[in-house]
Specification:
The structure holds two protein chains of two kinds. Chain A contains ten helices and eight strands. Chain A is α/β, with parallel strands linked by helices. In chain B, strand 2 and strand 3 form a beta hairpin. Chain B has two domains: about 190 residues, no CATH class; about 130 residues, no CATH class. The chains are: A alpha/beta, B alpha/beta. Chains A and B meet through strand 2 and helix 7 of A and strand 10 and helix 11 of B.
Chain lengths: ~325, ~350
């Protein structure tokens, strides 16, 4: 891997230039991208409509929100005053592209109105892990130097190796750039990508006994406050009314008793099988620092093994959860994993 | 008086028989206020808790009462029996102590006295510690607070390094101090050091929000375009309000264990950011999008609170600034609001 800092600079320059061109040529009405956050270890999604504002666009390894989320909200956004759908340019790392493609497969969006500003993502920093490890010291500044993340505070400076402190999902990511569909991608994109994945990263977890897994899950999830940041940031959670919000009658308990927390997270996970695009935004935004990556990775693996399917790679393959075949494997229903 | 840091265990031992002793502990990487059973759990090196200590008096899930049924009708209601228990909240910060004042205003507003909250509040003794090193996101001084604000505490401690300077603030607090006869006398040097720390702490607060006219501006700008801008990237999650020391909204539900002929009525934190919050039975939702929901959160704290209680409904702890997933920074929002006026004045001129 080259120098992260200069990679970031190149990506950012390319985003700015492509965004400027799209706005200037009136190919899009609005650009959705990232801008600098006001606190360390953050970035902020931004909507840009004027060419001169494209300088606000930024790329660094903290652009953790999956921007596809803004194209499939519960309440439609991105319409002009006459109710016409706006044409959108969207800064697309690989997982944003995958999310958009899967949303198109689920008939939620139409690529006619979308231009992806494709970039080759160089990974998102595991901000919650760093936050926890720094603990009760205030982080005032972060930067990248060589292959290190430098974290500075009032009277400390710490260095974290970049590769090790990426999001777990970024470490094993095989789709850094958005797959190109309908010629909607400008910039870096993948043509007909085929990915191989051995899922070795979760073999440790898989080798645990059921009891050990249960202890891990309980320990991980029990901090949940049910603020639903994970759900709200998820591009695939676009239901008008989430199962957990059903209240006529109530389907699921609303407390933070562990059974209720567990019911929420596992039902949400089930709903994401074969749909999750492994962007890791859910873990990046959790105020309590809950990391859901093992659960999403395991889901991804099951879907890959059973149905040879990876979400968001092309528009043609019918996802397993949208089809039915008499040959579908089902022995896993009886398995304890 | 002086309390040595290694005497905190003694303090705990002396008071924990009579009081539930809540103190900051490290839990899953963050600070939380928990009822402790061993003084070694207490973490004395901390900024503030992730979830504000309001959760002690107003927990996320709170059983209001339990009931028995005969399978069809409620036959017996069992009220809470633990409300007379006494609590000590050790180590809370001035901003959070001030939030208890705001919570009390809300729970005692008008004809509706929330006995559960008020009883617990009455039975709680606050032993607060001043903030020697406020965070860059702290802005208590913008709302008449201070990192060494003592008024809302019963006993106030200043961290002098190896020991705490102890000051009784309320009668309740002074009574406790009298009981702790083993506390040593503070020297003039200790008092002087505390004053220096106070000055230093105040200087460390760099976030200054001008809230002088914010309430007036908000009142006359309900339909302003700014709300669209402010809510543009908001996801609609509840992290800002669930981690806010002054948010008080809750939902009430009945849980029924049908086959055991038992049930319980619980109140659970709710937030104006959620889709169900203002959803009418008809299906109509007057706050249908993030625009109205974001606006409500700001108006409640910076307009409705001043109108109803003559107080700002924010204590300047900065938690919402730190946790917002999309970095929708309250400081930026407030300065945008304050700018509305300037622009309009320009237009009028």
């Amino acid at each position: 891997m080259g120098d992260i800092e200069s990679e970031n600079q190149d990506i950012e320059n390319s985003i700015k230039e492509l965004a400027r061109n799209l706005l200037r040529d009136k190919e899009v009405d609005v650009i959705i991208g990232y801008t600098k956050g006001t606190v360390p270890l953050s970035s902020s999604p931004v909507f840009i409509t004027r060419e001169e504002d494209t300088d606000k666009l930024l790329w660094n390894n903290l652009c953790y929100v999956n921007l596809a989320n803004y194209l499939a909200p519960r309440i439609p956004k991105l319409y002009d005053e006459e109710g016409q759908k706006l044409k959108v340019g969207i800064v697309a790392k690989g997982c944003v592209g995958r999310a958009l493609i899967h949303l198109a497969v689920e008939n939620q969006i139409n690529f006619e109105n979308i231009k992806m500003i494709g970039i080759s993502c160089n990974g998102i920093i595991n901000r919650k892990r760093i936050e926890k490890e720094i603990g009760e010291r205030e982080i005032l500044e972060t930067s990248i130097l060589g292959n290190s993340i430098i974290v500075k505070g009032r009277d400390f400076e710490e260095t974290f190796p970049f590769d090790e402190y990426l999001n777990e999902l970024c470490k094993v990511c095989k789709v850094k750039s958005p797959p190109n569909v309908d010629d909607s991608c400008v910039g870096e994109c993948l043509e007909n990508p085929v990915i191989e994945d051995d899922f070795n990263d979760i073999s440790d977890f898989e080798s645990k006994t059921s009891e050990e897994k249960w202890v891990y899950i309980k320990d991980t999830l029990s901090a949940c406050t049910r603020c639903y940041a994970c759900r709200e940031v998820c591009p695939m959670c676009y239901c008008n009314l989430c199962f957990v919000d059903q209240n006529k009658p109530i389907w699921f308990g609303k407390t933070t008793d562990f059974t209720d927390i567990f019911a929420f997270h596992f039902n949400r996970a089930m709903h994401l099988a074969g749909r999750c695009v492994a962007c890791g935004a859910c873990s990046s935004v959790c105020p309590m620092g809950i990391d859901l990556n093992l659960i999403t990775r395991k889901l991804e693996k099951i879907v890959k093994e059973r149905y040879n399917f990876t979400s968001g790679m092309d528009k043609e393959t019918v996802p397993p959860m949208m089809s039915f075949s008499m040959d579908d494997k089902e022995e896993f229903m009886m398995e304890e994993d | 008086m002086i309390l040595l840091k290694d005497q905190v265990a003694k303090l705990y031992n002396e008071l924990s028989e009579e009081y539930n002793f809540f103190a900051p502990v490290k839990e899953k990487g963050f600070i939380a206020y928990r009822k402790i059973s061993n003084p070694e759990e207490i973490e004395l090196n901390y900024f503030n808790s992730k979830i504000p200590p309001k959760e002690i008096l107003f927990p996320q899930n709170e059983v209001l009462f339990e009931f028995k049924t005969d399978g069809k009708n409620v036959v017996e209601i069992e009220d809470r029996k633990d409300l007379d228990e006494k609590n000590i909240l050790f180590g809370i910060r001035p901003c959070d102590a001030h939030s208890f004042d705001l919570l009390e205003k809300f729970f005692a507003f008008g004809d509706f006295q929330d006995e559960i909250f008020l009883k617990k509040r009455e039975n709680s003794l606050l032993i607060g510690i001043g903030c020697n090193s406020p965070k860059s996101t702290c802005f208590c001084t913008s709302i008449e607070g201070h990192p060494f604000q003592k008024d809302d505490m019963d006993i106030f401690l200043v961290d002098l390094g190896d020991n705490y300077l102890v000051e009784g603030i309320s009668d309740k607090g002074n009574n406790i101090i009298q009981r702790l006869s083993w506390l040593s006398k503070a020297s003039k040097a200790d008092v002087k050091k505390a004053q220096e720390l106070e000055k230093k702490a105040q200087d460390l607060i760099t976030t200054k929000l001008d809230l002088t006219n914010t309430s007036d501006i908000l009142e006359s700008n309900f339909g302003n375009e700014i709300w669209k801008e402010v809510s543009e990237n908001c996801l609609g999650c509840g992290s800002c309000s669930f981690l806010c020391p002054t948010c008080t909204c809750f939902d009430v539900i009945d849980e029924n264990a049908q086959y055991e002929n038992r049930g319980r009525r619980i109140r659970i934190w709710d937030t104006c950011q959620f889709c169900l919050y203002t959803l009418h039975t008809s299906g109509h939702n007057p706050r249908n999008s993030n625009i109205e929901r974001c606006r409500n959160r700001i108006l409640h704290k910076f307009s409705y609170y001043p109108l109803n209680y003559d107080l700002i409904g924010c204590v300047g702890c900065g938690r919402c600034i730190q946790v917002c997933p999309v970095n929708n920074d309250l400081r930026t929002i407030i300065s945008k609001i304050n700018n509305i006026k300037t622009n309009e004045e320009n237009v009028n001129v």
